[in-house]
Amino acid sequence: MRIAIEVASAAIGTICFCILFCIPKKYFIVCGGIGAAGWLIYRLLLLADLSDFLACLVATIVITLLSRFSAVRTKTPSTIYLLPGILPLIPGGGIYRTVFYLINNDVHSAVNVGLNSISIVGGIVLAIVLVFEIPQRFFRTRR
């Protein structure tokens, strides 16, 4: 039940970021679905005892693939789907805790949390780069 609430929250949060980024309303549902799918995969992989880095890497690969397929289908830039879709995976809480520990002179905890946050961001970047290296022709649908 908890994962279902998290996935629904990820979808709603993604749609809210669509509003913030002034994305046209007709793309809200697809963007929300992409964000929810990415969060679901991330949480399921964490339950399977994968590291934060690998779970985030795989979830971002799926988000980027879905974004590219959706972009080709709707003839829009893939960033319309990609930017809101990856936002649930961004480690904002980890970055906040890193700064909190630094302010409170707990350098050991700050380094641990900070390195984990940097690895998650690195996984996101690596996944996006890997998927965008796939040629565009693989995403076109044949009629």
Strand content: under 5%
Q: Residue-averaged pLDDT, rounded?
A: 93
Separation, N- and C-terminal Cα atoms: 41 Å
Alpha-beta classification? mainly alpha
Strand tally is 0
Q: What's the number of structural domains?
A: 1
Report on the biggest sheet.
none
Low-confidence sequence ranges? none
Report on the structure:
By secondary structure, the protein is mostly helical. It has one domain. Helix content is 76%, strand content 0%. The longest helix is centred in the C-terminal third of the chain and has 26 residues, at 107-132. It starts with a helix and ends in an 11-residue tail after the last helix.
Layout: helices, strands, pairs:
Elements (H helix, E strand, L loop, with lengths): L1 H19 L7 H20 L4 H23 L4 H8 L5 H12 L3 H26 L11
Helix pairs in contact: 1-2, 1-4, 2-3, 2-4, 3-4, 3-6, 5-6
Task: Give short descriptive properties of this protein.
mainly alpha
Characterize this entry briefly.
The protein has 143 residues and is mainly α. The protein contains 6 helices and no strands.
